[in-house]
Amino acid sequence: MPKSHRPYPREFKQRIVELIRNGRKPEELARQFEPSAQRIRNWVRQADREEGHERERRQHSRPSGARPWSPCRDITSQTRTLTA
């Protein structure tokens, strides 16, 4: 069973997130500091959610009016191509 770790201070997390946003890589910071790269990515994702950035990113990721990807729709279009 892995050892549990005391929660990291909020200021520490905020500083790590700031470093990521300024261009540093999670793997680089994981080597330099204690948290894993995945934990750092989670902190960035959480900070984005708290600050509303995730919603903005989603809005810009596909053209307006475009439907979200659907595996069923994709399979249906592939089936039509194969049977035509």
Q: Mean pLDDT score, rounded? A: 78
Give a short account of the largest sheet: none
Number of distinct helices: 5
Helix content: 55-70%
- How are helices and strands ordered from N to C? HHHHH
For the termini, the CA-CA separation is 56 Å
Tertiary shape? extended
Please, could you describe this protein's structure?
The chain has a domain at 8-62. α2 (26-32) packs across α3. The protein has 5 helices and no strands. It is mainly α.
Short description:
The protein is mostly helical. It has a domain at 8-62.
Features:
84 residues; mainly alpha; extended
List the helices and strands and how they pair.
Blueprint: H1 10-21, H2 26-32, H3 37-51, H4 53-61, H5 71-83
Helix pairs in contact: 1-3, 2-3
